[in-house]
Amino acid sequence: MKILYFLSLFGFFIASVAFTADNIPSAVWVSSDKAQLKTDLKASSPTIAELPKGTRLSVLAFEKKWYQVGLSNGRTGWIYRGKVSEAEVEKTEKAKEGGSIGGLLGELSGSSIRADNTDSSRSIRGLSPEAAEYAAQKGTPQVYRSELDKVIARKVSPEEIDRFLQQGKIGEYQE
Fold first, then answer.
1. Topology given in CATH for the domain delimited by 25-104
2. Residue whose C-alpha is closest to residue 91's, from 109, 73, 78, 103
3. Which ranges of the chain would DSSP assign to H, the alpha helix?
4. Which residue, of 70, 95, 102, 147, has the greatest Cβ tally within 10 A?
5. How is residue 172 annotated by DSSP?
C-alpha cells in the first residue's frame, strides 16, 4: 500500500513539473519603456540594461514573478513579469530608433486598461465633450468641473511612479 501511495505521489510530482514547464512561454516582449534587466530576481539588484518597448526576450526560467531571459546578443538577466507580455508588442517609434517614450497607461501588462494617444491627449485637455455635456445636463457646478479638469491635467513622471512603487513595496519591489 505504501508503494502505491509513493508511486502516486511521485507521478503527481512529475506531472506537475511537466505541466509547469509547459506553461512557461519560450519568449516574451518588453511591454514598458526602459524596462530594467537585472542581475538577480530582485528590484534592488544591479541593472544590466534598460530595454526598449518591443524587445523580444528568450525565456530561460520563471521564478517568484521574475523571468530569467536571454537577449539576442547572448546576455542574460532577470526581468519582472509586469514589464513583459507573452504577446508580441510593437516597438514605439523612438524605441525603434534606440530611445524610448513615456507610455504610462498605454500598455499596462496584465490589465485591460488601454489608452491611445487620442484618449490621453483629450484627457490632458480636460473633460471630453461628451463628459462635459453630461455634467451640464446633470447640473454639476462649474467649480467641480474645474477642479476635475485640474486633476485630469496633472502629470506624474515615471520617476514619481517608480518612487511610489518602491515606497509601497508594490510589483517588482515587493521582496
1. SH3 type barrels. (2.30.30)
2. 103
3. 2-23, 93-96, 117-125, 129-137, 142-153, 158-168
4. 95
5. G
55 burial via Cβ count (<10 Å: 0-12, 13-18, 19+):
buried
Collapse the DSSP code of 150 into the 3-class scheme (helix H, G, I; strand E, B; otherwise coil) and give the result: helix
Scored b (16 or more CB within 10 A) or e, 98-111 reads: eebeebeebbebee
Question: Which of 25, 48, 26, 28 is CA-nearest to residue 36?
Answer: 48
Tens digits of per-residue pLDDT, 151-163? 888 888 888 888 9
Percent of the chain whose predicted confidence (pLDDT) is above 90: 33
Which cell goes with 72? 539576442
CA distance 69 to 121: 35
Of the listed ranges 31-35, 61-65, 102-106, the one predicted with least confidence: 102-106
C-alpha cell at 158: 515615471
